[in-house]
Specification:
Keywords: Membrane, Transmembrane, Transmembrane helix. The protein has five helices and no strands. With 121 residues, it is mainly α. α3 packs parallel to α5 and α4 runs antiparallel to α5.
Length: 121
């Protein structure tokens, strides 16, 4: 059972279980109470709690990904995206990190000037 399970994979799996149990607990409560699920998003009720758990678990998983991936790619200050999400929003910092990650991956893949073969004169 432990084959191919890294500690990071276990963390992501645990977050997935928390996300499933947390959201569906409130979803089931909304069904039992015969609530207007989408209407509750604008007011209050189990739907708001479900959405809160949903976004919170996604933000935690994304934050773990940001820190691990930034280290793997040698991106300085990866932790700053996580901190900045508390001041701005994770909906801003996560796509921003993905954009900077893409730039970093392209920079790593691009041949350096010293790797280029000088053409014969």
């Amino acid at each position: 059972m432990t084959r191919h399970w890294s500690p990071l994979a276990v963390v992501y799996l645990a977050l997935a279980v928390c996300g499933l149990v947390g959201t569906w607990t409130f979803n089931a409560l909304a069904v039992v109470q015969l609530r207007d699920f989408f209407g509750d998003w604008l007011g209050s009720g189990p739907a708001v709690s479900s959405l809160t758990v949903d976004l919170l678990v996604a933000a935690v998983a994304g934050s773990v990904f940001i820190i691990i991936e930034a280290r793997r790619l040698g991106m300085r200050f990866g932790w700053l995206y996580v901190v900045a999400s508390g001041v701005t929003a994770f909906a801003f910092t996560f796509p921003l990190f993905l954009a900077m990650r893409e730039r970093r991956m392209r920079a790593i893949a691009a041949p350096t000037h010293s790797d280029a073969i000088d053409p014969a004169p």
